[in-house]
Each structure stands twice: as C-alpha cells, then as structure tokens.
Amino acid sequence: MNQKRILLIIGGGIAAYKCLDLVRRLREQGVAVRAVMTRAAAEFITPLSVGTLTNDRVFTDLFDLNDEREIGHIRLSREADLVIVAPATADLLAKMAGGHADDLASTILMATDKPVLVAPAMNPRMWLHPATQRNVKQLQADGVHFVGPNVGEMAERDEAGPGRLAEVPEIIAAAKPLLPSDNIAQTVTHLRAERPLTGRHVLVTSGPTHEPIDPVRYIANRSSGKQGHAIAKAALALGARVTLVTGPVALPDPPGVDTVRVETARQMLGAVRHSLPADIAVFAAAVADWRSATTPGEKIKKTGDRPAIDLVENPDILATVTSLEAERPPLVIGFAAETRDVIGYAKKKLKAKRADWIAANDVSLETDVLGGDSNTVHLVTPGGTESWPQMTKDEVAQRLMLRAAEHLRRTTAAAE
C-alpha cells in the first residue's frame, strides 16, 4: 500500500475515535491520508487530533473561500486513490443513496470517480430499519463497497446487535484490493509481520471429492481447489498451524502446511475428525452430495441397456462438525457455491448447518469462478451480509483469514 492516497471521510458517531487508529495504521503502511470531517464528527473527535496523525490539513467546510477558489471538493475527490467513509452513519448513507450534496462530505462523494468503501456504524435498530436497508441495497447496486457492520455491544447501555464499526484491521483488509495496482506480495509481507493467528490451529478443506462408480468412473464436482489452498496459505502467513484436507487436485501441497490428501467424502470426514481440535475450520471443499451405493470391482461395460446406479447421500461434513460438542471449533466457516439466489441460499445454509459464517459465491458458468483465479464473495453472518468486490482468490483468502483472526481476538478478549 506504499505511496497510495486515501481520502477518509469521518462521520458523526461515537465510533469516530477508531479513525485515529485507522489513520495511524494506514500511515504505518506508507499510505498518505487526507481527512474530511462532518460537523457532527467534530463533536466526538477534534480536527487537531486527526490532523496531527494525518500530518495534513483536515477539511470541514464546503464554503471555504481558499479551498473553493480551486474547486476544492472536486480536487479532494479526484486526488485520492480510494475514498473511505468511517463511521458511515445512517444519515450519511441516506445522503449517499439519495444523491444529496449539501455539505463537504456528501459533495465529495457525489463528485468522486474513485472507489468508495463504506464502514457503517449505528444503533442496531437504525441499521435494521427498512429505510437504511433500502439505502444499503441502492448503494451496493451503485457500486459502493461495504465492510461491516459487526455484531456486538453498543455504546448505549443494554444495546447489542449489528451496528458496530468494523475493526481497523478489517477496514484495511477491505481497502487493499480496492487500491490500484496493489502489490499482493507487499500485502502478504505485511500480514506475515502482524501474524495475528500465531498459536492457533486452522483446519481447511479444499478441492472436490471423487466418489467411484466403478474402478474407472466417478462422481465429482468441478473444483480446482484454488480457493481452499489459498486460504490455507493465507492462514499460514498469519502465523497459524494449518491442516489442509484436500481432495484430488492438480495443485502442489502448500509449503509449511500439513496436507492430508483424500479421495472420497467419507475419507475427508475421517481426516477432518482426526485433525480436530482446531480454532478455525474453513470448509471450502466441493464435496459430492451423493455416492454409488455399491462399487463393482470391474469396469461397467456398455451392453445396450441403461445402467442403473443406486445413489446414497454422503455425510455432511460441515453439519457434522458444527454438531460436535467438545471438539466444535470456535469459528466454523462454510462455503456455498450457488448458481442463483446466492445470498438467499447462503442464509438458509447458515441456519440449517449451524455454521458461524457462510462465504457464498456465484459459480454459474459465465462467472468463471470454478477453475478461475478470481472470486466474488458474499460473507453471510448472523449480523448481516457483506458483499465483497471481485478479487483474486489469494486476496479473498487474506481478507477472510484476517477477518477470522480479528473475530477470535474479540471473542477471546470478551471471555476474559
């Protein structure tokens, strides 16, 4: 992220104080940060504090004579590589969705031609209000990117639910793929330096399973294993001890990862159970739902008659692991590969499988996700859905594992 430029628009909410840490961490990574504060933001943190950390002037007024002589709101909106809005209040989201431009922040957002990343923060009832949800859907349709909100305790007493500002590492992870020509090697190097999964065990499944019909033929799903293997490598880069249980793939075993190769769904389930306990389990494998009830020892020959294959269901690995008591990992992440109603089916899977998160993606043939190098993921959690922009599978893996590391940090701190 070195030499990148971010324009940070700070909205008016108690979570504004986190922007001070966001600025500090971005500057540690070589990012130049300019800040715009709404009038309400200045009620929570001061322009002096923000300016000290950005080492630049803080912009607050649309009608500043010196700035607007050079059409300052246009200049600010175009000179950045990325615009981040954090915290994005319900009012700011409404202005953005409605195309309002009555202060410096909203005018910049109307004038910018750069990617916009929004980190909402508000009371849970405000976030779940139909008007806010309509505005979010409109902004997503307009191409605005979202990170969070997270679920947890609010500043108000006895208030909890979706509405917490995403943690600073999550915002940075969401920003990285939106910056132009970001060097993935630099990203990996930085994540290795932080190593937030040190001391953790991460279990990942990957690839397809092959269910034999006879010694030659088999039932399988179309999966290259690229996403699962990328997740294993990303977890390793964050300091975790990683076990990768993979079906038949053409990929090499990731160096430093304990790789277990299997063929069938039943073998995969056995390897998963043997690899527990784990702190995080990510089920990215495309497991065949059915297998042949019987497998003859010889190849089935064509005789002119249609062969009858009796199918039985394979074990559901995700549901089996989430139903465990003592050995259930604290964070279980499933994948949902769908061809229609991607988010709807993912929400049903989250509930039916009792998973913590579901990473859903559209695997229709026109998307080129299966076997390709890119992915577009919707992260479905009990607190809502985050629609991530299209990224490489390595970038998806890094963002998912950084998010998982932060989740474990917060839950561990809350339990202490």
Structural summary, described in words:
The chain has helices at 18-28, 47-54, 65-68, 72-79, 90-98, 104-111, 124-128, 130-141, 168-175, 184-194, 226-237, 265-275, 317-322, 342-353, 393-415, and strands at residues 5-10, 32-37, 58-59, 82-88, 116-120, 145-146, 150-153, 160-164, 201-206, 211-212, 218-219, 241-246, 258-261, 280-283, 290-292, 311-313, 331-338, 357-362, 374-375, 377-381, 384-387, 391-392. It is of the alpha/beta class and 416 residues long. It folds into two domains: 5-182, Rossmann fold, CATH 3.40.50.1950; 196-415, Rossmann fold. Helix 11 packs across helix 15. It starts with a strand and ends with a helix. Residues 67-71 have low confidence and may be disordered.
Could you report the average pLDDT, rounded to the nearest whole number? 83
Strand tally is 22
Q: Approximately how much beta-strand content do the residues carry? A: 15-25%
Question: Total number of helical segments?
Answer: 15
Radius of gyration: 24 Å
Task: Catalogue the unreliable spans.
Answer: 67-71
N- to C-terminal distance: 34 Å
CATH topology title of the largest domain: Rossmann fold
Helix content: 25-40%
Shape: elongated
CATH superfamily of the largest domain, please? Answer: CoaB-like
What is the level-2 CATH architecture name of the largest domain? 3-Layer(aba) Sandwich
**What summary fits the major beta sheet?**
8 strands, mixed
Strand order of the largest sheet: 13-12-9-14-17-18-20-21
Identify the CATH class of the largest domain. Answer: Alpha Beta
